[in-house]
Structure formats: C-alpha cells, structure tokens
Amino acid sequence: MTRHEWPLFEVFVRAKRGLNHVHVGSLRAADHEMALHHARDLYTRRNEGVSIWVVRSDAVAASDPADKEAFFTPSSDKVYRHPTHYAIPDNVPHI
Amino acid sequence: MAFDDAYHALTDHDDDARWAYGTGFTDPLAGVPGDLPDGVDRTELAAYCLMLGDDALILSHRLQQWVTRSPELEDELALANIGLDLLGQARLLLTRAGVAEGWGRDEDDLAMRRDPSGFRNVCLAERADADFAHLVARLFALSTWRLALLDRLTASRDPMLAAIAAKGVKEVTYHRDYAAQWVVRLGDGTPLSHDRMLAAVETLTPQLAELFRSHPTEIGLASVGVAVDPATLEAEFTQVWTHVLQTATLLPPTASLGGGAAPSLACDPAAEVSGVPAGIEQERARPWGRDGEHTPALAEILDEMQGVARSVPGGVW
C-alpha cells in the first residue's frame, strides 16, 4: 500500500489581547476540519488563542526572496510616508 | 505529589515576563464549598466518586499508551491532550473520594495503592485496542456516555461534583467531537477503512450494555439528587451513536429509533426468569467493573501505572 502524505496547512492564531492572527507554524491534516482540530491541539495548549485560521500551504502566494530589492528597499528612504511631522497631544495614546 | 496549587502562578492575568504564553488560567474549583451535602452517606459518595474517577484514570492510561504508537504525529498530540484532560478529571474525583471517605487518603493513595478489585471503572475503560479504528470507536462511545453523564451531574447537590462536572463537560465535548470525526472519516472513507471501522463497531457494540447498568450506589445517590443513574443515559447515547454511525455509513440510513432497527443497548434489570433475552444472560455473566470485577486487562494497566509508586513507597516528585 502506498502511503500518501497529508497536505500541509499554515496555522494562524489570534492571541487573547491581540488584534491580528499571527502565523505560528504548520501541520499536516487530511482536510480543513482536521487541520483546525490539530491546530487547536498543537498550538493553543497554553491559553495562547481565542481564534484559529488554517490555510493550505499551497494556497499561500509568497514573495520571492530574489525580489527583495525591488519589493522592500524602496520604502526605506521615503520618510514622508510616516506621519512623524505632527505634534501629538499628550492624551492621545498608542501612536 | 507534594506541590502547592498548580494554578497559583497562572491565575493572575498579568504581563509577568516569566510566562511565554498567556496566563489567566482559571481554577475550576475556586470558591466551591468542600462540605459534604446533607443526608448523604460518606461511604456511598466516596464509592461514586471512585467510579467516575476510575473511568477517567484508566481510559487516560490507555490513551497514554498510544503515545509513540499513533498513526500521525498530530493525532498523537490529540490523544495525549485527551488523556491529560481525563487525568485532570480523575485527580479531582479521586481527591473528592478521599475527602468523602474521611480516612485521610489522597489522590495518589487511591490511584497507586489499590488492587484491581478496588477499582470501580466500567470494563470498557480498561479494554486494549487492537488498532486505531477500535480506539476511536471506543473513545467515541465512552465520550458520548460520559458527556451525557457529566451534563446531568452539573445539577448535583454536591457542589464539588457539580463543579468537576461543569469543567469536564467542556473537555469531553471536544473528545467526543474528535472521536466522532474519525469514526465518520474512516467509516465513510475507502473500502478498507470502512471494513476496519465496521469491524471495530461490531466488536464494540456488545460491550456497551455495561454503560447503562445501574449500581445500587448510583441508584441510591441519584435518588437524593447527588448522582446520575446511568440507565437514564441510554436514550441520549443511542441517538448520538446512531446518528454518527449512520453518517459514517456503518448503519443503514433508514434506521429510525423505535423502528426496531436499533435494539436496546442496555439490559433490563427487571427482566427475570421468564422471557429473558439471551443478551441479558450474557451481560450478567460478564465481569462488572462497578462491582470491582474486572478483565485481566486492568491488572496489566495497574502493573505499569503503579510500578514506580509501589517500588518507592512515599516517594515524591
């Protein structure tokens, strides 16, 4: 009997107080439902999360490391993209 | 085990840098009064706590034996998690049993210093599983039964039992879901997985009757609002069991309950000499775990589970 590998899934967990789902790792599962179950067992054992996303790894489009120059360096000298030239009142938090 | 409350450092929800992950754990028994309910026999209450605690302890040990033997790494973790949940329930219930009997025995004395005849778990909890299909079938049956039981036990007059049950309901709901998904996945899978899942269910079905057989301790404590009579669980169990097996193509989809397609899983204790179905005769001949009668499988489990504690009396870790 040939052994078929289950497909790989990427797991994203939203922490208790966070706003975004954060990538925490990957796992193998036969389908989305099993992937969610496994993610719960593998990645939320210590109160880490309140919500889980799983997505098949082959459904993720990733930037090519070879394109790093074109993708990311152009933003490093464009200071005007950051709203740092404003005076912020003292009672406005989290800026 | 000599340690303080395990929740002590983790119940304060703060940004203590020692913890890489979230704190804010909750102690399920915080603030629950430990007094015994009025008019309840201590010995009977202790015996009942042992029944439910031993079910969890022995099944937990069987699940632990699957670690390093599971078909996939992810399922190994899932089974270990379920085993740990049950071990946690067993610890609370055995502690309650020790308090109720009042001889100063703690959870460790009860887990590690009883012989097979002192254990009160149902025999299905101690059964060894021939393969993964047998395991998920048995886990599904026991989780379905235990969930129905704990669900009713949340209304117990013993506040401690009610709190332990409320904690357990959340855990066992997940256990049942996990096992049911595997029963369906294998049953409604390939021809090979279907045949092996069907064989597991056919092996298991005759072993289910013990789950609905009422012990005098259970009946007595149920009558005063402390315990749950297992005979009252059969209807709910059969409904869930039939639904999942039909979804898994392991039972004909037409079987509606009461249509004669799903025979009663329990034995009727009122049925006596005349017209006793053969199944009841068989059931009475089987060992009854609630009475301390067990299969040889339990002695094997205890040899492994109690070995260290018995060879190092008084040892702590």
Automatic annotation (TrEMBL), chain A:
Gene3D superfamilies for the chain: Phenylacetic acid degradation B
One Pfam family it belongs to: PaaB
UniProt xrefs under NCBIfam families: PA_CoA_Oxy2 (TIGR02157)
Protein name: Phenylacetate-CoA oxygenase subunit PaaB
Organism in which the protein naturally occurs: Actinoplanes campanulatus
Automatic annotation (TrEMBL), chain B:
Protein name: Phenylacetate-CoA oxygenase subunit PaaI
EC code(s) of this entry: 1.14.13.149
A Gene Ontology term for the protein's cellular component: cytosol
A Pfam family hit: PaaA_PaaC
A GO BP annotation: phenylacetate catabolic process
Keywords linked to the UniProt accession: Oxidoreductase
Gene symbol of the encoding locus: paaC
Top EC class, one word: oxidoreductase
Domain of life, per lineage: Bacteria
